[in-house]
Amino acid sequence: MASTRRQTALAAIDAVNAWDISRIMAVRAPNCEQQILPKSLNRPSMNNEAYEKHFERIKNLLRNYHLAVEEILEDTGANKIVISAHSYADTPVGPYSIDYMLVLHFTDDGTKITRVSEWVDSAVFSEFSARLVAAMAGSGTNMVVTEDFGTN
To answer: How far is CA 148 from CA 11, 31, 56, 85, 127, in A?
Structure first.
């Protein structure tokens, strides 16, 4: 039988694949922090409120989003799970495809995620962000896309 931590991690993956912010937030602790890494990307850590705003900005830019898990490693002593994954989505500038390493930290009972360290392929992330920003800037729309795929 899978541990509570593993069940929570799988519920988080299912919620992301459903692209459902309510389900995503349901597995996060009230004090959960998430950060896209490496630090060279200069991405701020996001609390739940900031993460919900981030999701609202990206949800329509990344259509048919799917996170495919390649491997899950659990460290019971450290109360965390590491997930190797690859995600795919359709976007206004073509397919999005990137590798991830997610490090999930949990509450003592394993039912909620307290921290997400989202390690991305920085070369792919930076190149794609630049393409998306350039395409949307030249689209003639009033939409402005920021480097984190956010819109305003």
So the answer is: 25, 22, 12, 20, 12
